[in-house]
Amino acid sequence: xxxxxxxxxxxxxxxxxxxxxxxxxxxxxxxxxxxxxxxxxxxxxxxxxxxxxxxxxxxxxxxxxxxxxxxxxxxxxxxxxxxxxxxxxxxxxxxxxxxxxxxxxxxxxxxxxxxxxxxxxxxxxxxxxxxxxxxxxxxxxxxxxxxxxxxxxxxxxxxxxxxxxxxxxxxxxxxxxxxxxxxxxxxxxxxxxxxxxxxxxxxxxxxxxxxxxxxxxxxxxxx
Length: 223
Ligand SMILES: C[S@@+](CC[C@H](N)C(=O)[O-])C[C@H]1O[C@@H](n2cnc3c(N)ncnc32)[C@H](O)[C@@H]1O
Prior knowledge:
Blueprint: H1 3-14, E1 18-19, H2 33-38, E2 44-48, H3 54-62, E3 67-72, H4 75-87, E4 93-97, E5 112-118, H5 136-145, E6 146-156, H6 159-171, E7 175-181, H7 199-206, E8 212-218
Parallel strand pairs: 1-4, 2-3, 2-5, 3-4, 5-6
Antiparallel strand pairs: 6-8, 7-8
Helix pairs in contact: 1-4
Bound molecules: S-adenosylmethionine (SAM).
S-adenosylmethionine (SAM) binds next to helix 7.
């Protein structure tokens, strides 16, 4: 591991806004994000595969009356986001370092008002479909955490993942596609871009890719 990576791990280990294995809240936070982390009852928004957390931070600045949690497995990327959020004094931001496969240990039914999945790895090889974050298994999980009427957003630079998700989302009971576009920058849906350009988005836009976007609603009824 490089020195820089080591420093970042050390930083997030000490950062109050990062929850990761070994920290006390890691095993006890499920169902208690509002009372034991954010200390308010504002809605919770998740950014999955957040990398450096550009959406978590950008939306937290734009919507101070909501709480944002960026989730990623890579500690060095989360450490970058954590440092930026602390520097900006954002108290409505948390980062959770965990694999998305284990979200059940951190969130329960109806805990979340919105989920953003931003440029996930497309995992296009057939044998990797199980890792694709819009396969039917993951979509069912997201529906469980989303409140009735909650919104699922997908942004992807991959036309293949976009096409795949346009197929899997309607087959997921609960999610209904509200809008979608293969070119977010030149669409009336651009309002959902919030002027937030992530690290990977910058790279793919520079290569000439368009940004695909899907917005879906959780139509399950409340319990
Ligand atoms: C292509 S990067 C996108 C990062 C960021 N959203 C962006 O747009 O710059 C994909 C991210 O997903 C994370 N990731 C992939 N599979 C994951 C999983 N199962 N659980 C948590 N994070 C995952 C990777 O660590 C990586 O940071």
